[in-house]
Amino acid sequence: MEPTARVSLGILFMVGFALIAPVMDSFAKLIGDGMAVAQVATVRFFTQAAMLMPLAAAMGWLHRPRRRELALHLVRAALLLVATGCFFYSLQFMPVADAIAIFFVEPFILTLLGGLLLGEPIGARRYIACTVGFCGALLIIRPSFQDFGLVAVLPLVTAFLFAFYMILTRRMATRMHPITLQAYTGLAALPIALPILWAFDGSGIGPLDPSWPDTRIFWLLMVMGLCATASHICISFALKFAPTSVLAPVQYLEIVTATALGYYIFGDLPDAVSFAGIALIVASGLFVFLRERHLERRPLPQP
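Now predict its structure.
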């Protein structure tokens, strides 16, 4: 596959992530305080490992990680586990679109980290597209600490942790099958999360004290785990095919899905300024995709 075609495919996988990930967040919000946040996050990773480890084994994609790779899996899992817990907890108090809009400093951080840590070229047009998308996110919510207090900090924490998770994913996704990568991520999170749940069992601390789910919460957990697995498979394939600096502005499309689901499920209707922000986000994502398609179709120079 030509390099530019790989980039276009990576962008399409990122679009898939942007469509599926807010569905996971919506189901996490529907669970609410019916289960400890730490337990919800643990179930999310357990479901991912249970689905992908047998698939990777059956396809012959598994391998024995070396010590350095094992350490990277554990670091990735820890980053994503804490990021997931922070974000899910914020959803107990905030609308999905609000939390995701605050989180959307992440693509801007990711673009900068991609250039600093991975040496990826970042042209002026990508910087502009990323900045325009970020401005659109600010228009949608205009994050207000007066409205949400310190809870509004949690999506920001998630943004920083997720940006570093994406950098590690980009570095590792080029060297192993994306299904294998996500299977090991789900598995690596369990030895971190399960001791925490065991230690806080019966403590009475709401976000950490586990409990047995009722039938409704059980099915919400299953769908949430399925969506989480599918979305992160998409992001692993996206990062396998395309640089983070290209994918970052496309990730802003996630806010469009979040806004639609927020209105459909929770009745959160964006105002006119918010719709203007959505238009900016869509425009920035489409600009990157159409530019890469143009580069893909541009004839190669003759020798």
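Residues 54 and 183 are 9 Å apart (CA to CA).
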